[in-house]
Amino acid sequence: MRSGSQAIGARRRKSILTDAQVEVATGTFRLLADPTRLRLVHELLEGPRSVGALAIACDVSASAISHQLRRLRDRGVVRFTRNGNTLQYELIDDHVASFNREALYHADHVASGKRHP
After folding, report:
1. Running along the chain, 117 residues long, what does each successive block of 10 average in pLDDT?
2. CB–CB of 40/80 below 8 Å?
3. What is the pLDDT of residue 4?
4. What number does CATH give the domain 19-112?
5. Where are the chain's structural domains?
6. Which residue, 95, 115, 112, is CA-closest to 45?
């Protein structure tokens, strides 16, 4: 039978993060910490969008949107398909989508003064 301190020690060992996990998680936080990229991911939750549509929705130039989309694409968060001269971007990382939804849900609660359920 384990003592109380042995049980706590066993739980701590199970919850230790690897360096790789920490690096990926903090990289994801940094990636989404940019307001334009956060808005882009939010827009893409609704489905594929063109650069022009994203620029309008985010109120940012198409050039700036393309730059931010490249960052998201390089991290495997979005991909594009070509439809003639138009690039359609879509969100492909379900974890980032879920994280974005939760972060904005949290922000809504904090901003409105609501208590979390």
Report:
1. 58 78 94 95 96 97 97 96 94 94 91 79
2. no
3. 59
4. 1.10.10.10
5. 19-112
6. 95
Measured between alpha carbons, how far is 66 from 52 in angstroms, rounded to an integer? 9
| 32 close to 96: Cβ distance less than 8 angstroms | yes
Tokens (6 digits) for 78 = 């979005």
Closest by Cα among 65, 106, 91 to 57: 65
pTM attached to this predicted model: 0.79
Length, in residues, of the chain: 117
The pLDDT of residue 113 is 86
The beta strand positions in 53-105, using DSSP E, are: 78-83, 86-91
Residue 38's pLDDT is 95
What is the rounded CA–CA span in Å between residue 62 and residue 57? 11
First to last CA, the chain: 37
Distance, CA of 73 to CA of 62 (rounded, Å): 16
